[in-house]
Write a structure and sequence with these properties.
It is a single chain. The protein is of the alpha+beta class. It has one domain. The chain contains four helices and three strands; from the N terminus they run E-E-E-H-H-H-H. A three-stranded antiparallel beta sheet has the order 1-2-3. The chain is globular, with a radius of gyration of 14 Å. The structure holds zinc ion. Zinc ion binds next to loops.
Length: about 80
């Protein structure tokens, strides 16, 4: 489920997406350089990797989950027995 709280217009016509408050650090995330049409398509049901292939994986995860990848790792540390 998208974790988009709001968007900010950039001077270059792209968007900075502000995500919901991260459950890990209690701060919202910021994902810059999102194409408006791509964001719209994703919110309408397209797969994020299809409409925003240029975004780093960590940014896409942040948009989807509202969690920073570092916070996710600290809340759910890798299995030490693995
Ligand atoms: Zn966080």
């Amino acid at each position: 489920m998208p974790a988009v709280a709001r968007t900010e217009d950039q001077a270059d016509g792209l968007l900075t997406v502000i995500t919901n408050t991260c459950p890990g650090c209690r701060h919202p995330g910021r994902v810059p350089n999102v194409k408006p049409a791509a964001l719209k398509a994703w919110l309408e049901g397209a797969h994020i990797q299809d409409v925003m292939p240029e975004l780093p994986v960590a940014d896409r995860e942040l948009l989807i989950s509202g969690m920073h990848s570092d916070c996710f790792d600290s809340l759910f540390p890798p299995d030490e027995d693995a």
